[in-house]
Amino acid sequence: MEIFLFLIILVIFQRIFELIIAKRNERRMKQLGAYEVGASHYPFMILLHVGFFASLMVEVIIFERTLSPFFVYLFVFFMLVQLLRIWCILSLGMYWNTKIIVLPGTKPVKTGPYAFFKHPNYFVVCCEIIIMPIMFQAYVTAFIFSILNFIMLSIRIPLEEKALSEAANGEYVLDKKIQHPS
Fold this sequence. Notes:
Layout: H1 2-31, E1 35-37, H2 42-62, H3 71-92, E2 100-102, H4 120-135, H5 139-169
Antiparallel strand pairs: 1-2
Helix pairs in contact: 2-5, 3-4, 4-5
């Protein structure tokens, strides 16, 4: 149980720190003329992630789940996923955010893990939603929240790609005309 509590507290503090970074990046980007896309689904995304942690804690603590026999291997994979998360954040710099913040006239980042595939940060989230519960044999949480996350990403990714593409090409994005810098 101590391992679970340590890990869950660590990850929750990590998320809080990431929200602070995201808020700072959002302010910086908006000062440069950026705007948010998909704000209507963002509260559901927050609810999904808060619900994930609540479900994980309930399933592990109330139903007294124990460590997986493969915990060590899963934990190593989890730590590698965390390194990928940090690489994503560092590669995007001020563009990294938990919201879809679009800066007109900019092209999507193609460095770091983004040079290898389009959405490494979403891959990280998918892995975490599966790995964290399985480390503690919380299979119900892993199953339910993997499905909910898939639904969320099926909405979010196309919206994000469309907004970034339109912003880079100087097209209209959700009724806003993008002004290209001179």
